[in-house]
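Dear colleagues,

For the upcoming journal club I promised to circulate an example of a predicted protein-ligand complex. I picked one with zinc ion because it came up in last month's discussion. The inputs are reproduced below in full, followed by the predicted structure.
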Amino acid sequence: MLLSAVREAILDFTLPRVCVGCDALMARAEAGIVCGLCWSRVHLLPNPVCARCGHPFSGAECRWCELLPPYVRCARSFCWIPGEPAAEIVHALKYGGWHAVGAEMGKRMSRLTFPDDVVRERVALVPVPLSAARKKERGYNQSELLAAEIAEAWKIPLVSGCLVRTRSTRTQTELSPEDRRANVAGSVRFHTRRVDLAGAHVVLVDDVVTTAATLNECARALYDGGARIISYVTFGRARSAGDRI
Ligand SMILES: [Zn+2]
Ligand SMILES: [Zn+2]
């Protein structure tokens, strides 16, 4: 522990750090690998938001809530995606191998405001799983890194391994909402022998939510596995048509 602290201090002293968001050299006093200017430029979701789905109100009826199955209590996200520098930050976490940025992102996600009943009832955090092939290629599951940081802040356990991908799915980026649902249908299952979540309120963690197809598939698997209420927390959220920015 002490040795690693010494090593880090030496590295800090000898290696200049470059921000993963803007490539600027970071001041020595700044912690982490994203500079303060980049964090201040991230587009937060504007208030007021829907109490359930956390989406900024865009009219009398919340269209985003319609995406969620009835057992999903609420969803919260930190910022809009895409858009700089949030997209760069997510990219650094997922594809740049910068797993240290996960702690900075998770810390901000843990400070999001949830309804009182969710704060009272939530008993576990479950990261959205990666397929075995993708996890091997990346070396880690980015959602698990985010969940670990939130678990520490909320003082509830991180339960990984209770959801498994039964098959690899195509990347969702180019797909329509219907195709996204079809792409992930049946791709996640609950690993019953690992953990007992019967009757529990569980919070699912992912880096980005777009149409909630993947999160909904994981929520269904948790519900099938005995969890009764599920909430979502993500770092980024994609805008839908008509959103305020
Ligand atoms: Zn920066
Ligand atoms: Zn809503």
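Two points we might discuss: The chain has two domains: 1-41, 42-238. The first strand starts at residue 72 and ends at 81.

See you all on Thursday,
B. R.
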